[in-house]
Design brief:
29% helix, alpha+beta, 80 residues, three-stranded antiparallel β-sheet, globular
């Protein structure tokens, strides 16, 4: 809760916005990680499709894709 995650997301957005053409930004988060999903939603992320995947340990998990069509929202404070 020191702003490190928000700064990391802002740096990621800056990297995407520095490229041409500017595209959206997305990441995958585990379905069970509801606190991370809440953080990303608070930063303007839209929770999209879920997809199962194999884990490195041989198990299965479900990921949720979080999308920012406009990464500029990550350059300011939390979305309201």
């Amino acid at each position: 809760r020191q702003g490190i995650g928000a700064r990391l997301m802002a740096c990621s957005a800056e990297a995407v916005l520095a490229d041409e053409p500017v595209t959206g930004l997305y990441l995958w988060v585990l379905e069970d990680n509801v606190s991370a999903q809440a953080f990303y939603a608070g930063r303007g992320g839209l929770l999209r499709q879920k997809e199962p995947f194999d884990t490195p340990g041989g198990g299965r998990a479900v990921g949720v894709r979080v999308v920012w069509p406009d990464p500029t929202v990550l350059l300011s404070g939390p979305a309201s």
